[in-house]
Design goal:
Elements: E1 28-34, H1 41-50, H2 56-69, E2 71-78, H3 79-95, E3 101-106
Antiparallel strand pairs: 1-2, 1-3
Helix pairs in contact: 1-2
C-alpha cells in the first residue's frame, strides 16, 4: 500500500486550520464589606439584599461576619461585575449618609 502523492489535505491546499485552544475562565474578585462604628447592621443587610441579591439569611450571616471579624465577603464576581456592584453599594451608602467601606480583591 503506497500513499498517493496527489492526495492533499486541506492544510496543504492553503486553507487555514484553526486549532481550538482551551479557554481560560476570567479571574474572579471578592467584594468586601468593612466594619465601621457608624453604618447600621440593618443598612448592611439592605445593601446585601438589594445590591448583591443575597437572601435574608445569607445577608445576616455576612453582616455578622463584618461585625465580628471586621470584614465580610459580599460576593465573588468577574472584575467588571465586582466593580459595578461595589460602585452601586457605595452610591447607595452615600444616598443614605452611611460611611460604608467596600473594597475588592482577587479571589483567594
Amino acid at each position: 500500500m503506497s500513499k498517493d502523492p496527489t492526495k492533499r489535505t486541506q492544510r496543504d491546499e492553503g486553507v487555514d486550520v484553526k486549532e481550538r485552544t482551551r479557554t481560560v475562565p476570567p479571574r474572579r474578585y471578592e467584594v468586601l464589606l468593612h466594619n465601621d462604628d457608624y453604618t447600621t447592621m440593618d443598612f448592611v443587610v439592605l445593601v446585601l439584599e438589594s445590591v448583591f441579591r443575597r437572601d435574608r439569611t445569607a445577608s445576616i450571616r455576612i453582616m455578622l461576619a463584618v461585625h465580628n471579624e471586621g470584614v465580610g465577603v459580599a460576593g465573588t464576581y468577574t472584575r467588571e461585575v465586582a466593580e459595578t456592584k461595589l460602585q452601586r453599594a457605595q452610591t447607595l451608602a452615600q444616598e443614605h449618609g452611611m460611611p460604608l467601606q467596600l473594597s475588592m480583591q482577587p479571589e483567594r
